[in-house]
RNA sequence: GGCGCCUUGGCGGAGUGGUUACGCAGCGGUCUGCAAAACCGUUUACACGGGUUCGAGUCCCGUAGGUGCCUCCA
């Protein structure tokens, strides 16, 4: 079975056929580094991380490019009046994004180009557009260059809208435009703007418009035609529509497939600064273990709206604990049998089919839980061959999704000194409790268990002895 | 006004024509000295009204409510 993806442009599930067999080029619109990352940024990055991991698992060589928009109105605005330069602000925020991505195991892209590093490529496209009659420099002395939407009959093809039906943008800077729907390719430098934010160009000093950067960077690194273009649903229009129009008008075939991830809603509404309901990455990272956060953000289908609600992370924590419990228990139980270390990393067919079906992660996760259930049952039956087989499957599946709770990437960064000290003390108490239980002194045994419990340490009695673990 | 999306059991969240999604929470049971964990069972869901069909959360039409984009946005 081949991978099928929902193409936003076709509005249909389509078979994925790469341009070059065995290779996939993906371009994803990354963040404008104007302010701290929030839950939506993480969700988006995670969605394409899942895609990238699945393609890699399937044997593709993936070239994954996710840009950083480091020059834009908002960045200049946010730096205005502060002692921090706009470029310092952009870089500081970029580092925050990188840290947040790393925290939840989003693999670094193959390359992460910054818009400011591709100004010449943007200018080259603009020049081609002007020469082709699809763009014009204004004659009002501003140095602005606009895309001429009326000159491009296919304008609106991505979002299936007719130019005439679109509400004219209430754009205060539209004086030089031929049509209010035309969008900026190049913005002439304005009085008072930092000179560091102006690049020389055939149309005068200035800076790029928002959309042109993605046309330039995607084709620069992936070629004038490439496989997949992704981004948040809110970027479909105008950003992606404009990207597509200017790239096609400039003669590039551009993306073969368009993917859009769903947004995050808080109490039924899209998160936004004006509503004051933003959930920032830093809050999430502080309130849940990284693997739990990754599980939660990735467990819903990438095209669905993800509802953030109180208790969501606790639910995810319980689900992850269930998986971890099996992995932990199975490895411990198999350790002193001939099945130790024999688990083969096998992806079950049902999991593969789910992932191939437009990345149906919810169903893939259901396969994991089902396998965990069967694995636990096998453990209860002391069927170690079956346990080992299912252990391998769960490990393989959770690895592909990046949610293996036992993966070294989730290990705490502590040096282990404190942990060893704790283990020594706890094991002493556990041993005391075992002694008490043998003499049927359950009062003492239960007291030790209660005291450990109050310290956040759980005790589980198993056929092979008591096992302790830290809660959470 | 234009282009979309959503409405599933206590909660989250899959499912696009015909057998249990799955997770969390609850309840009952097995196991256990008691627990915990685990397993088994269970709570008979698909906004509403029509229609198509042998058969519809699942397709069609309509109604209601919610929501996204059209302005910076993952």
UniProtKB/TrEMBL annotation:
<keyword id="KW-0067">ATP-binding</keyword>
<comment type="similarity">
    <text>Belongs to the class-I aminoacyl-tRNA synthetase family.</text>
</comment>
<keyword id="KW-0648">Protein biosynthesis</keyword>
<dbReference type="Pfam" id="PF09190">
    <property type="entry name" value="DALR_2"/>
</dbReference>
<dbReference type="InterPro" id="IPR014729">
    <property type="entry name" value="Rossmann-like_a/b/a_fold"/>
</dbReference>
<dbReference type="GO" id="GO:0004817">
    <property type="term" value="F:cysteine-tRNA ligase activity"/>
</dbReference>
<dbReference type="Pfam" id="PF01406">
    <property type="entry name" value="tRNA-synt_1e"/>
</dbReference>
<feature type="binding site">
    <location>
        <position position="239"/>
    </location>
    <ligand>
        <name>Zn(2+)</name>
    </ligand>
</feature>
<dbReference type="InterPro" id="IPR056411">
    <property type="entry name" value="CysS_C"/>
</dbReference>
<feature type="short sequence motif" description="'KMSKS' region">
    <location>
        <begin position="270"/>
        <end position="274"/>
    </location>
</feature>
<dbReference type="InterPro" id="IPR015273">
    <property type="entry name" value="Cys-tRNA-synt_Ia_DALR"/>
</dbReference>
<keyword id="KW-0030">Aminoacyl-tRNA synthetase</keyword>
<keyword id="KW-0963">Cytoplasm</keyword>
<keyword id="KW-0547">Nucleotide-binding</keyword>
<keyword id="KW-0862">Zinc</keyword>
<feature type="binding site">
    <location>
        <position position="243"/>
    </location>
    <ligand>
        <name>Zn(2+)</name>
    </ligand>
</feature>
<dbReference type="InterPro" id="IPR009080">
    <property type="entry name" value="tRNAsynth_Ia_anticodon-bd"/>
</dbReference>
<keyword id="KW-0479">Metal-binding</keyword>
<comment type="subunit">
    <text>Monomer.</text>
</comment>
<feature type="domain" description="Cysteinyl-tRNA synthetase class Ia DALR">
    <location>
        <begin position="350"/>
        <end position="412"/>
    </location>
</feature>
<feature type="binding site">
    <location>
        <position position="214"/>
    </location>
    <ligand>
        <name>Zn(2+)</name>
    </ligand>
</feature>
<keyword id="KW-0436">Ligase</keyword>
<dbReference type="InterPro" id="IPR024909">
    <property type="entry name" value="Cys-tRNA/MSH_ligase"/>
</dbReference>
<feature type="binding site">
    <location>
        <position position="273"/>
    </location>
    <ligand>
        <name>ATP</name>
    </ligand>
</feature>
<feature type="binding site">
    <location>
        <position position="29"/>
    </location>
    <ligand>
        <name>Zn(2+)</name>
    </ligand>
</feature>
<dbReference type="InterPro" id="IPR032678">
    <property type="entry name" value="tRNA-synt_1_cat_dom"/>
</dbReference>
<dbReference type="InterPro" id="IPR015803">
    <property type="entry name" value="Cys-tRNA-ligase"/>
</dbReference>
<feature type="short sequence motif" description="'HIGH' region">
    <location>
        <begin position="31"/>
        <end position="41"/>
    </location>
</feature>
<dbReference type="Pfam" id="PF23493">
    <property type="entry name" value="CysS_C"/>
</dbReference>
<protein>
    <recommendedName>
        <fullName>Cysteine--tRNA ligase</fullName>
        <ecNumber>6.1.1.16</ecNumber>
    </recommendedName>
</protein>
């Amino acid at each position: 079975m081949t991978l099928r993806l929902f193409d936003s442009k076709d509005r249909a599930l389509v078979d994925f056929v790469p341009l070059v067999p065995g290779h996939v080029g993906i371009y994803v619109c990354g963040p404008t580094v104007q302010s701290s990352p929030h839950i939506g940024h993480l969700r988006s990055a995670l969605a394409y991380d899942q895609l990238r991991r699945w393609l890699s698992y399937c044997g593709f060589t993936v070239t994954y490019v996710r840009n950083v928009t480091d020059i834009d109105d908002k960045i200049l605005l946010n730096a205005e009046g502060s002692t921090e330069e706009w470029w310092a602000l952009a870089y500081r925020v970029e580092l925050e994004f990188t840290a947040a991505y790393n925290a939840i195991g989003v693999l670094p892209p193959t390359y992460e180009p910054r818009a400011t590093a591709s100004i010449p490529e943007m200018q080259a496209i603009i020049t081609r557009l002007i020469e082709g009659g699809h763009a014009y420099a204004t004659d009002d002395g501003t140095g602005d260059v606009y895309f001429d939407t009326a000159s491009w009959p296919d304008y609106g093809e991505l979002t299936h809208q007719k130019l005439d039906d679109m509400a004219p943008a209430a754009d205060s800077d539209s004086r030089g435009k031929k049509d209010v729907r035309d969008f900026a390719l190049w913005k002439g430098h304005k009085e008072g703007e930092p000179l560091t934010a102006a690049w020389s160009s055939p149309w005068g000093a200035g800076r790029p418009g928002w959309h042109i950067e993605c046309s330039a960077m995607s084709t620069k690194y992936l070629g004038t035609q490439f496989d997949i273009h992704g981004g948040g649903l809110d970027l479909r229009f105008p950003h992606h529509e404009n990207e597509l129009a200017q790239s096609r008008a400039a003669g590039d075939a551009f993306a073969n497939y368009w993917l859009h991830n769903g947004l995050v809603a808080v109490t039924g509404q899209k998160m936004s600064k004006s509503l004051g309901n933003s959930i920032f990455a830093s809050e999430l990272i502080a309130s849940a273990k990284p693997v739990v956060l990754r599980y939660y953000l990735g467990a819903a289908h990438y095209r669905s709206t993800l509802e953030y609600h109180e208790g969501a992370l606790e639910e995810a924590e319980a689900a992850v604990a269930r998986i971890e419990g099996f992995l932990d228990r199975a490895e411990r139980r198999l350790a002193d049998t001939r099945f130790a270390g024999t688990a083969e990393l096998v992806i079950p067919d049902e999991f593969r089919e789910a992932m191939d079906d437009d990345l149906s992660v919810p169903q893939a996760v259901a396969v994991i839980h089902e396998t965990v259930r069967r694995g636990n049952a096998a453990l209860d039956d002391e069927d170690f061959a079956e346990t080992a087989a299912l252990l391998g499957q769960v490990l393989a599946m959770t690895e592909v999704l990046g949610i293996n709770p036992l993966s070294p990437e989730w290990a705490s960064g502590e040096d282990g000194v404190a942990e060893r000290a704790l283990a020594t003390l706890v094991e002493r108490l556990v041993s005391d409790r075992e002694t008490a239980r043998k003499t049927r002194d359950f009062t003492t045994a239960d007291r030790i268990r209660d005291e450990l419990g109050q310290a956040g340490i759980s005790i589980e009695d198993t056929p092979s002895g008591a096992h302790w673990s830290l809660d959470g």
